[in-house]
Amino acid sequence: MAAFFFPSCKSKADYPEASARLAAYVKARFGIDPAGCCRTDRKRLAPGDEALVVCNNCAAILEESSEAGRIGFVWNAIDADPSFPFPDYGGEAITVQDCWIAVERRSVQDAVRSLLAKMNFRICELAEHHERTRFCGVNLLQKCNPSNAKLAPRRYVEQGAEMFTPMSPEAQKARFRRHCSQIGTERVACYGKFCTDAVNTGGKRPPIC
After folding, report:
1. Backbone phi, then psi, for 123, in 5-degree steps?
2. How many domains does the chain have?
3. N or C end: fewer C-beta atoms under 10 angstroms in the chain?
């Protein structure tokens, strides 16, 4: 049985320094090297192999289109590391933005909140949180990505087809501004690319990813 780390192509592009530090941590702590892109390198996984992921979309693709025996998230892995050097944010209030792609992943949602608590944040919840969330940034405000539909049909077609409501870029920005107007904290914690971009567009401080 082998283990593979999928660092998220989009995260690497948006946060190259943080992504490099995370890859170094995963290698040093767990002995796992980055595997590349989930859309192509998913074929490297044999039955029983483990995939460690950052991205909710990567998890959905690997879950449905690979032979991985287990899919784990870096959030849970870091949360379980007693030696991880957490910074201290001094009790600053922060709102958690849950992601629709991970709507049923309670262990991930709990790990994110546990990490925030360990960083000494005061956590605030939105009305639509955990399994209630329907937020996914621009992902649900455009047509479904054909590759996502092919590689994760249960998530995007069988269970999620009705969630897609395409609208113009201008309407998307207005939607994100309205969404962020209900958030009472300046900082928002996201754990997905689409939510991060949307909250940032809506005018909140750069989220933690």
Report:
1. -85, 130
2. 2
3. N
85, part of any domain: no
Would you say 182 and 126 are in contact if contact means Cβ atoms under 8 Å apart?
yes
Specify the amino acid at residue 209: C
209 residues of the chain, pLDDT tens digit each: 899 999 999 999 999 999 999 999 999 999 999 999 999 999 999 999 999 999 999 999 999 999 999 999 999 999 999 999 999 999 999 999 999 999 999 999 999 999 999 999 999 999 999 999 999 999 999 999 999 999 999 999 999 999 999 999 999 999 999 999 999 999 999 999 999 999 999 999 765 54
Regarding whether 117 and 176 lie in a shared domain, the answer is yes
**201 and 172 in one domain?**
yes
Domain that holds residue 49: 3-79
